[in-house]
Amino acid sequence: MHLQGSCHCGAVRFSVEAHQPYPFMRCYCSICRKTAGGGGYAINLGADYASLTVEGEEHLSIYRARLESGEASTGQRHFCRHCGSALWLYDPTWPELVHPHASAIDTPLPLPPEHVHMMLGSRAPWVEVACKPNDRCFDDYPDESLADWHRRHGLTD
Predict the structure, then answer these.
(1) Where does this protein have coiled-coil stretches (predicted)?
(2) Would you put residue 138 in left (φ > 0), alpha (ψ -120 to 50) or beta?
(3) Within its chain, how far is the Cα of 83 from the centroid?
(4) Contact 102, 43 (CB under 8 A)
(5) Are strands 97-100 and 116-118 parallel, antiparallel or unpaired?
(6) Reading across the β-sheet that carries 53-55, which strands appear in turn?
C-alpha cells in the first residue's frame, strides 16, 4: 500500500510503500508514550525503507532514546523540528525496514480486525487499556512480528 504522511505544520512530507499498513499494534513503552503517544501508546506500521521519499528533509531532527542500561538506542526516531510531530522510526539493525507512525499518515488506513497491546508492563498508571475480546495483550514484546500478524490475517500480497 502506498502511504503518504506529513507533520502537523507541513514542513515535512513523506511517502513510503507499506507491506504492513494495518495499524494494529499499540506500544505502551515509556519511549513511545513520551515521544509519540497521545493515548499513552504509539502505533508503528511496517514499510520498505528503500521506497521512503522525503520532502523537507532539512526540517527533520532525530532522537535516539536512552535505554535503561544508559546506552543510546540504535533506533532513530525522526520528527519535525518545528512542530515536534513524530514521523517514523528507522533502525540500521534492520536496514530494509522503516516504521512510520500511524498518526503521521494522511492516507486512509485500513481498520484492523484486532489489536495487539504490547509493553503493558511499562505503561503509565493513568493509561486505560481498551482491550476488545479478540485483542492480545503482552507485558513485553508480542510473540509475532508485524509481518507475521499480517500473514496470519491474510493481509499480505
Answers:
(1) none
(2) beta
(3) 18
(4) yes
(5) unpaired
(6) 2-6, 13-17, 53-55
Give the model confidence (pLDDT) of 95-151 as tens digits. 999 999 999 999 999 999 999 999 999 999 999 999 999 999 999 999 999 999 999
Q: What is the DSSP string of the chain?
A: -EEEEE-SSSS-EEEEE-SB----EEE-SHHHHHHT-SSS-EEB-BEEGGG-EEE-GGGEEEE-PBPTTSPBPS-EEEEETTT--EEEEE-TTSTTEEEEBGGGB-SPPPPPSS-EEE-GGG--TTPPP---TT-EE-SSS-SS-HHHHHHHTT---
What is the domain partition of the chain in residue ranges? 2-152
Can you name the CATH fold of 2-152?
A: 2.170.150
pLDDT tens sequence across 9-47: 999 999 999 999 999 999 998 888 888 877 788 898 999
Which amino acid is present at 12?
V
Length, in residues, of the chain: 157
Residues 6+ apart with CB under 8 A from 68: none
